Amino acid sequence: MEAAGAGQYDEALNCTGSLLARDPLDADASFVRGLVLLESGSFAEAAESLRRALYVDPGFGLAAFQLGRAYDALGDDGAAR
Fold this sequence. Notes:
The protein has helices spanning about 1-5, 10-20, 25-40, 45-55, 60-75, 75-80. It is mainly α. The protein is built from six helices and no strands.
């Protein structure tokens, strides 16, 4: 989170990648990764990561909201809704 908040996207992606390599079901790491990818313009990858966070934790409201943003950026209005 610290690297992502500081705009150090490569570092944040490396950190979340390491966390997910150890525990692929880490919803928080998938969420942070999705946020970073969304901010960096990688909308399809962001959606994938945010979907993973929701798969692990279906009640993760912030992940659902950010997933809607990713779909909106991809131009998929139906999925965004």
